[in-house]
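**Protein fold record**
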Amino acid sequence: MKHLFAAWPKIAQQLSRGRHVFLLSDYDGTLTPIVERPEDAELSGASRYLLEVLAHQRRYTVGIISGRALSDLKARVGVKRVIYAGNHGLEIEGPDFDFVHPVAREVKDVFNALVQVLRKGLNSISGAIVEHKGLTLSVHYRLVDEDRVAEVKDVVEQTVDVPKLLGQVKTTQGKKVYELRPAVDWHKGKAVSLILANRRYGPETRPTVVFLGDDFTDEDGFAAVEKLGGITILVGEDMPETRASYYLRSPGEVQEFLGRLVDAERRKMG
């Protein structure tokens, strides 16, 4: 896997040739640094400005695909003309786009009940955070003492045992977080495909797709974009096994990448 800036001439040429560019990115750990509490993940003013500039370019479509709730994601990014995909793509909203996965709607009451059980079960474990995102749940344990992390895992597994047997819930693990989602075959890769299909591009006008992410849940997005011959970028250096072709070290380098995209568009316009 090569550092993106080391391959910049090749990347810049690929982006320049495309009639349209789909720039799709995760939020936490990609556009913003990983923080101890999810509510503290704030997008920098510079990155917001660059996303806004790109979103208003005729040749670009910008999308943010996150595990966060849709309403939370929109509030944090705050840029118009962007496609927002929350809860790993279970809910998507943007220009000419309004989607909620039907199965997620059906099990919403199950998640409302699970959040109460989890908060009660984890109440005695300092640092454990249960984040209710409407259609999904996250249990964060970044602030939990190492000797109690196993307890968090036990509470989560016991809580979801019956809903998993009933085919209502599935669990995945990210960076210091357990994700509880509806047991439906849906992920960021499916969300990418749906977003692209909604625009109805033909083979002759197929866009160049860029996807940035930092976590295990982004691997499905990398796989989907890889099949399209797009540009896949891992943010961080702590995932030796990844489908991404390039990497950037930090959200700071992502901001620099966005700046390079803006500069390239301005040069094209003269």
